[in-house]
Design a protein that fits this description.
Elements: H1 7-18, H2 23-30, H3 34-44, H4 58-95, H5 100-103
InterPro entries: Homeodomain-like_sf (IPR009057), InsJ-like_HTH (IPR055247)
Pfam families: HTH_28
Organism: Paenibacillus azoreducens
Length: 106
């Protein structure tokens, strides 16, 4: 979104952030830099009444679901990286002619 957003659109995004959607998720979804959104939050948060913050509409639920999927993906990538490292260590151990783990097991 190269164009400047109208104030109503900026306020809508701020309300989603105040409802618990992470700024990073909103930034990717709306193609807006996270710092821009953080600035809007600072500018508008005091003017938004608590009852104006969306609770459980479908759009917000979808954003929260996306956030959960991203968190699970990050955990899976980390776990996969750790498994790859373990496999590499095991491959290196198998290449050794006289591995120390065999000497200690007698």
């Amino acid at each position: 979104m190269g164009k400047r957003l109208k104030e109503e659109e900026r306020i809508k995004i701020v309300k989603e952030a105040l409802a618990g959607v992470k700024v990073g998720v909103l930034a990717r979804m709306y193609d807006i830099h996270p710092e821009t959104i953080r600035g809007w939050i600072r500018d508008y948060r005091d003017s938004i009444a608590p009852e104006e913050i969306p609770m459980a509409d479908e759009h917000l639920q979808e954003l929260q679901r996306l956030q959960e999927v991203e968190q699970r993906y990050e955990k899976a990538v980390k776990a996969l990286g750790e498994k790859e490292l373990e496999n590499e260590i095991l491959r290196e151990l198998l290449k050794k002619k006289n591995p120390s783990y065999l000497k200690n097991s007698k």
